[in-house]
Amino acid sequence: MGYLLMKKEKKGVYEARAKIIKAIAHPSRLLIIEELQRHQRCVNELTEMIGADMSTVSKHLSVLKNAGLVEDEKKGNCIYYNLRCKCVTNFIDCVEEVIAEPAGNHKRLRLPAKTGEKHENRNSGHGLRQVRKAGKNC
């Protein structure tokens, strides 16, 4: 009975965590996070980078904003977005490590290797660890 009671007490915490994880669980939103960890971007820039229409990119930004991961600031006619919680890149670093792991049970998660490229060199080198060390965490 104590286990069930604890489970009920923790349900809200788990739901909040799941909301954040779901918010980043889309390739376009991962790209947005990656770009915003470098510096702020306006919707037009992100639309061009993603290659989708503005309404789709705005929806992705809305999901990230509702999860508390990004914030926006209007400057003139453009809305600029910033990564509010730079610590989310720590989680992405962890995912990259899982992808790069040679363990047999992760084979299905690995990205397809380019000709002549080994899986061990799959670290994207996007500088997420450097930003994590330098950036603020929430």
Estimate the strand proportion: 5-15%
- Mean pLDDT across the residues is 80
Strand segment count: 3
Radius of gyration over all CA atoms, rounded: 18 Å
Instruction: Count up the helices.
Output: 6
By secondary-structure content and strand pairing, the structural class works out as mainly alpha
The biggest sheet amounts to:
3 strands, antiparallel
Kindly, what is the distance between the CA atoms of the first and last residues, rounded to a whole number of angstroms? 35 Å
Provide an overview of this structure.
With 138 residues, the protein is mainly alpha-helical. The chain is built from 6 helices and 3 strands. The chain has a 3-stranded antiparallel β-sheet with strand order 1-3-2. The protein is globular, with a radius of gyration of 18 Å. Mean pLDDT is 80; it is low at 117-137.
Structure at a glance:
The protein is mostly helical and 138 residues long.
Which short descriptors sum up this protein?
6 helices, disordered C terminus, globular, mainly alpha, single chain, 3-stranded antiparallel β-sheet
Helices and strands in order, then pairings?
Elements: H1 2-24, H2 27-38, E1 41-42, H3 43-50, H4 54-66, E2 70-75, E3 78-83, H5 88-100, H6 128-134
Antiparallel strand pairs: 1-3, 2-3
Helix pairs in contact: 3-4, 5-6
